[in-house]
């Protein structure tokens, strides 16, 4: 008798698992950036349209496939067509790449979390230089938060060619991050199902606390006004729509096989249509909610910096001209400047180069995304709040929950096909397979703790998943509708769940979403080809800022390998299956 | 004669204390920035206190224990509240070298600041750099302690889960074999209860219990 497939204890665990996986760091650090760059409030229009046209249907498709086939991605696509099991293999490869570098972010979150228990926070003050008369030079040129990130956390080298050695502190944190992930996936759905209650709900608690705190900060309204004033002209920019489509696509985590894996542990009669709609709506609202929090924090930071800048200018003026302390304020600054320029022209022109033009707009315009937002901009805002240790601990704990939730989905995508395979599961028990996968990923992940590790991280972040996923999901949609047959799948779904498939889903699955995928794929391909050489941002310690450099040839080779390793799986496996079948037919022909 | 002497003294003093004079230091106070509403006005009494603090600092220097308040000269007081000062030697003809004054002020900076409710940023001695407070470095970095705690918790939890998983699997493997043993025993020994053999009861097909049958037939002819 076959061993029963493990199931979620109740449908709520499945929904929480999907939410925990989909709501990840991208909602916190990518969506606010896109919102700011592409028109503020008006970005919501393409975002919602893409959600309805692309996000929901593709999510429903993956969940339906997983629930129907009741196997991981490789097995599911093999059932649809033996030539298409390459799609499943490609999903596993991409998930493998993702889990390699994604857990490094959790390691950094751990690092910052452990350092939040100090007074003062280590990133709020610059360390002193050798003879204690001033601050460290690199820290003076950059800011204390940038110094802590680039020097203390990453100890980054000036370029990708200089790899340096493994930094033991981030390596320890990476080990801890992998042990935590192993603990959560050890028992399969039994343990994962309980962990996702926390990883899905705790980030919302922290976000709500931050929302209340953020909105009461001085200057928060500046940030909110800036973000939500719609710039309608951005709607005409095609990049706005492309970025909205891309954000929906990657935010839901389509194509990795995690959603198929989660859905395969469902009861066959589960209403996955309702769950697909719920998960996608919650994911998008979380993005918008997180961007409200982010922009109130931005506004606070920008206002703080603007007022500090004004104070510096005022101090400069009263020191140079011996004016009474307190006579120059932000209100009369312009009048005083013009008065001084006319009365003491020579002295004024002597100090004129040092007088910065402080502008709130330019402070708000510094749009940042990714690790820069999470670890530099947010920490800068947190260090200026009262009781900063508490806010810091809450914030990094939230980042950790978001990251671990997504990691659970990634590892499920890798482990489910492995444990489904009878060959591997007969050799080793489930705990040993999970342990082996975690160990291999941890060992390879040590590359990202080198001094040049952050540059390799950027390579993986930008290129490992983008193009491959578009291809994978495109093939998925086309395979389901045209190779397996949409009507056949519709009949099976109806038999399984008892609900008919409405025409809305049918049109989207068969026509609209594949066309969108093709458009996005062509756009990105042409973008990469037209860009010529690829460049990256390197940290220059002597200047205290980022500079642009070209990738060396071997880095370009690694990028090419990353993309090829996953995309080539689809045609190669199809070819391999075709050849094997030919051989088998050749073997059996003489007998019959 | 006295007037002449007076003018001479003030003239010499004026020469000793001038902006950018030898061994002169500029001081800048930002009282309103530091104290806001509680700011006090800078008047001659405050200047007297300042001169007293500088004289006090100089008296702490070996060989300069005889410095008096009158040896400290202030000049060029501006509205900013900034001024220059020099410290003269007992003969009142020369100024004390800048190095000595600098080291004296640095040693007693804290007390000078406190006398005026100010700090290093709001009471500035230009050209005298303040010694920055070193950050407190505990012997064991705090983060390693917290890391160690969480690491141990996670490792213990993993070990517990793995061990309980192994135990469960062992129990499952032994379970079916135990039930199998019991069945074997029953088949080998023929037990008799109430004069009826047990083996008819073990057969899967189910079988008629003779003791029961006769009772029924007697009582229910319907």
From TrEMBL, chain A:
Annotated keywords: Glycoprotein, Membrane, Metal-binding, Sodium, Symport, Transmembrane, Transmembrane helix, Transport
Protein source organism: Oryctolagus cuniculus (Rabbit)
One example GO MF annotation: proline:sodium symporter activity
Assigned protein family: Belongs to the sodium:neurotransmitter symporter (SNF) (TC 2.A.22) family.
Classification via InterPro entries: Na/ntran_symport, Neutral_aa_SLC6, SNS_sf
Keyword Transmembrane helix part of the UniProt annotation: yes
UniProt record, GO biological process: glycine transport; L-proline import across plasma membrane
PROSITE patterns: NA_NEUROTRAN_SYMP_1, NA_NEUROTRAN_SYMP_2, NA_NEUROTRAN_SYMP_3, PROKAR_LIPOPROTEIN
Pfam families: SNF (PF00209)
Lineage: Eukaryota, Metazoa, Chordata, Craniata, Vertebrata
PANTHER family: SODIUM- AND CHLORIDE-DEPENDENT TRANSPORTER XTRP3, SODIUM/CHLORIDE DEPENDENT TRANSPORTER
Descriptive protein name: Transporter
Transmembrane segments: 12-31, 43-61, 82-102, 168-186, 195-220, 240-265, 277-298, 393-415, 436-457, 463-486, 507-526, 554-580
Binding sites annotated in the UniProt record for Na(+): 22-23, 27, 251, 283, 402, 406
GO cellular component, one term: apical plasma membrane
Membrane topology per record: Multi-pass membrane protein
Subcellular location: Membrane
């Amino acid at each position: 008798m076959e061993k029963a497939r493990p199931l979620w204890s109740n449908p709520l665990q499945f929904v929480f698992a999907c939410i925990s996986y989909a709501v990840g760091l991208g909602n916190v650090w990518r969506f606010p950036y896109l919102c700011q760059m592409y028109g503020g409030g008006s970005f919501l229009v393409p975002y919602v349209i893409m959600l309805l046209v692309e996000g929901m249907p593709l999510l429903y498709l993956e969940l339906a496939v997983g629930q129907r086939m009741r196997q991981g991605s490789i097995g599911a696509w093999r059932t649809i067509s033996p030539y298409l099991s390459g799609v499943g293999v490609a999903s596993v490869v991409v998930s493998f790449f993702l889990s390699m570098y994604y857990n490094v972010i959790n390691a950094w979150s751990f690092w910052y979390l452990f350092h939040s228990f100090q007074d003062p926070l280590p990133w709020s003050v610059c360390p002193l230089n050798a003879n204690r008369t001033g601050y460290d030079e690199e820290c003076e040129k950059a800011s204390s938060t940038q110094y802590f990130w680039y020097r203390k956390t990453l100890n980054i080298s000036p370029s990708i060619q200089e790899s340096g050695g493994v930094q033991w502190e981030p390596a320890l944190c990476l080990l801890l991050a992998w042990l935590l992930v192993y603990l959560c996936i050890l028992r399969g759905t039994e343990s994962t199902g309980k962990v996702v209650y926390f990883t899905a709900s705790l980030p919302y608690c922290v976000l709500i606390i931050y929302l209340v705190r953020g909105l009461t900060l001085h200057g928060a309204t500046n940030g909110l006004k800036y973000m939500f004033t719609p710039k309608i002209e951005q709607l005409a920019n095609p990049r706005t729509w492309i970025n909205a489509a891309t954000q929906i696509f990657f935010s839901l985590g389509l194509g990795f096989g995690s959603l198929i894996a989660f859905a395969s542990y469902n009861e066959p009669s589960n209403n996955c249509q309702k769950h697909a709609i719920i998960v996608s709506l919650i994911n998008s609202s979380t993005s918008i909610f997180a961007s409200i929090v982010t922009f109130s924090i931005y506004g606070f930071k920008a206002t703080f910096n603007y007022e500090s800048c004004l104070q510096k200018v005022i101090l400069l003026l009263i020191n140079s001209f011996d004016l009474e302390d307190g006579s120059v304020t932000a209100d009369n600054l312009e009048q005083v400047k013009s008065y001084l320029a006319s009365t003491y022209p020579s002295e004024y022109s002597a100090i004129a180069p040092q007088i910065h033009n402080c502008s709130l707009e330019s402070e708000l315009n510094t749009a940042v995304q990714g690790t820069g937002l999470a670890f530099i901009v947010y920490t800068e805002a947190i260090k200026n709040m009262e009781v900063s240790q508490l806010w810091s601990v809450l914030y990094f704990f939230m980042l950790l929950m978001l990251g671990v939730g997504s990691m659970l989905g990634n590892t499920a995508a890798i482990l489910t096909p492995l444990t489904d395979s009878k060959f591997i599961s007969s050799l080793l028990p489930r705990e040993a397979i999970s342990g082996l996968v975690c160990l291999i990923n941890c060992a390879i992940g040590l590359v990202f703790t080198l001094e040049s590790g952050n540059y390799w991280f950027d390579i993986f972040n930008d290129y490992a998943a983008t193009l491959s996923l578009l291809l994978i999901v495109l093939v998925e949609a086309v395979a389901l509708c045209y190779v397996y047959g949409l009507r056949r799948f519709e009949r099976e779904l109806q038999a399984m769940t008892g609900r008919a498939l409405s025409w809305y889903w049918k049109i989207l699955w068969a026509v609209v979403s594949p066309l969108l995928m093709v458009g996005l794929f062509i756009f990105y391909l042409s973008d990469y080809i037209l860009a010529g050489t690829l460049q990256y941002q390197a940290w220059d310690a002597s200047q205290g800022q980022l500079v642009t450099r070209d990738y060396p040839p071997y880095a370009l080779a690694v990028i090419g390998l990353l993309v090829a390793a996953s995309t080539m799986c689809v045609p190669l496996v199809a070819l391999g299956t075709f050849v094997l079948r030919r051989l088998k037919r050749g073997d059996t022909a003489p007998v019959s | 004669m006295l007037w002449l002497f007076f003018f001479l003294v003030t003239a010499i003093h004026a020469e000793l204390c001038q902006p950018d004079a030898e061994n002169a230091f500029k001081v800048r106070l930002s009282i309103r920035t530091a104290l806001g509403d509680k700011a006090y006005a800078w008047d001659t009494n405050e200047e007297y206190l300042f001169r007293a603090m500088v004289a006090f600092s100089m008296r702490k220097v070996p060989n300069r224990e005889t410095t008096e308040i009158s040896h400290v000269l202030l000049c060029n007081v501006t509205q900013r509240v900034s001024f220059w000062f020099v410290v003269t030697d007992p003969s009142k003809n020369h100024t004390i070298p800048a190095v000595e004054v600098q080291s004296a002020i640095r040693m007693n900076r804290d007390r000078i600041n406190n006398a005026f409710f100010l700090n290093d940023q709001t009471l500035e001695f230009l050209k005298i750099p303040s010694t920055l407070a070193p950050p407190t470095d505990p012997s064991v970095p705090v983060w390693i302690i917290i890391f160690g705690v969480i690491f141990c918790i996670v490792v213990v939890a993993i070990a517990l889960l793995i061990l309980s998983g192994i135990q469960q699997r062992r129990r499952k493997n032994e379970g079916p074999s135990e039930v199998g043993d019991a069945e074997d025993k029953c088949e080998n020994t023929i037990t008799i209860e109430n004069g009826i053999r047990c083996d008819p009861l073990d057969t899967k097909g189910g079988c008629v219990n003779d003791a029961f049958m006769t009772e029924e037939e007697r009582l229910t002819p319907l």
